[in-house]
Amino acid sequence: MKARFVHRCVHVVDRDKAIEFYEKALGQRVLYVKGPADGSWSNTFMGNDETPFELELTWNRVQEAPYENGGKDTHIAFRVDDIEAAHALHESMGVIARENKAMGLYFITDPDGNWIEILPEE
Questions:
Q1: How far apart (Å, rounded) are the C-alpha atoms in residues 108 and 92?
Q2: d(CA 32, CA 83)
Q3: Is there a smaller number of Cβ atoms within 10 Å at the N or the C end of the chain?
Q4: Planar angle of CA 24, 29, 35, nearest 5 degrees
Q5: What backbone phi and psi angles, to 5 degrees, belong to 100?
Q6: What DSSP string runs through 46-72?
Q7: Quick one: which of 66, 63, 46, 64 has its CA closest to 55?
Q8: Rg, Å, the chain Cα set
């Protein structure tokens, strides 16, 4: 058997705010959107040309309270080609949650409180 990792789902309360965050903070773009004709929920898949991996933003119209997306130890990670420029952008956005300078990495949070690890390219 072969298995291929294709996407990670996070639940979001404000779809547009989440899309804007991932576009600005991490250079992602909407690849495609799935959902019913009544617009009661949607799965927005985001990605870029750097990897075939996708981020699925699941939104439900009736959800008003923040989701529990697994706690702060649950996270996704991005490698960036310019860690200093990424850090400066994320600092200006006010989204840096934690830094580990000894390890050369830091975490940012999206509008729904999901943690995202930022790593330099190796």
A1: 12
A2: 28
A3: N
A4: 125
A5: -130, 85
A6: EEETTEEEEEEEEEETT--SPP--S-T
A7: 46
A8: 15
Separation between Cα atoms, residue 25 and residue 106, nearest integer Å? 13
* Residue corresponding to tokens 């979001």: 12
d(CA 89, CA 26): 10
Question: Cα(45)–Cα(97) distance, rounded to whole angstroms?
Answer: 25
pLDDT in tens, 38-80: 999 999 999 999 999 999 999 999 988 887 766 666 789 999 9
CA 77 to chain centre: 9
User: Can you give the pTM of this predicted structure?
Assistant: 0.86
b/e code 20-46 from CB counts within 10 Å (16+ = b): ebbeebbebeeeeeeeeeeeeebebbb
| Amino acid found at 12 | V
Strand, helix or coil at 102?
A: coil
Q: Which residues contact 41 (CB under 8 A, 6 or more apart)?
A: 35, 58, 59, 60, 61
Residue tagged 């995202």 (tokens): 116
> Cα(96)–Cα(117) distance, rounded to whole angstroms?
10
